[in-house]
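User: Structure please.
Assistant: Input sequence and predicted structure:
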Amino acid sequence: MHKLECSAMMAFRENWCPSETTRLVARILAKKKTQKERCVSEKIMLIGEMQSHVEDVDNEKREMNEADIAGLYRFYSKHLDLPDHKDLLTLLSQVSCNGFTIEDDELSHIGTAIYPDVALINHSCLPSVIVTYDGMSAEVRAVKDMKPGDEVLISYIDLLYPTDDRNNRLRESYYFTCDCQECKSKSKDKAKLKVRKRSDPIETDVINNMVRYARKAIREFRALKHTKTPSELLEMCEHSLEEMGAVFDDSNIYMLHMMYQAMGVCGCMEDLDGAVRYGEKIVKPYSQLYPPNSLNVSSIYLKLGRIYMLLDKPSMGLNAFKKAMAIMEVAHGKDHLYLKELRKEMAQK
């Protein structure tokens, strides 16, 4: 794999810019060419046997796939024999709806990988297991008590959001609607969409309009995240929080979403006090709205712990680290590298 990419990188130098998906597909094709037996992640199902949903891909995704194919021909055609166009479209669709996002201990994006056997596990908004990573290997770990015969279920998406938002995401990315107990009961939707208490209740139309505004603000922030300056992004967060705050409670998930973005922007700007201010508003609602042993919760405790340490607040930092560790020991296992590094981090303080 290294030889394949090294040759291409040397040839293109500063013009080397394939997408992450293009690089993953190139690695898959190179491995298939030299692979003589099933790899450890294909004991049950081969990559070529994964569901592709190629017939369901919309125009926007089709254009992205065509761009990735163009990238394969541009950056790899001299060093890799590429299959025909139809087979490439199928493989790209398989990667798109079966890939796993690899993240660090604070859930910052590292890359994307394919584990066909793990991709067989069905989705639920009430997952019984979580997929984490140890080096190149994916590990499936229980996050709640299970009995023999219970189905192993993972979540394909971020579970913070209310039922309609979750199912919109599932339909867009995975082409199905979830019918788990949480989606049927919508038991957490009221808490996730909490509005401010007033002597005169807020009208339903006002709430619905603000939900539409919030979704639009989130889309706009996502689209501009890599083009605006940090100060401009923070201004966007603060403006949307001010608008939404007239209707939504601070624990409303749309408020939490923008606070999380603001926390990250403050961190980039080295505004540690600002990052802590937003993080402290997030962590309690996260603990209540996410399922037990969620890495989304542990990552906030980790971030807060590290910022507290930088602000010379060691007791608060250690307390946050301990709460993160309790979750991470379940999700990653007590001997995982992230836990070893965290223990060293705590011992130095």
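The first helix runs from residue 2 to 12.
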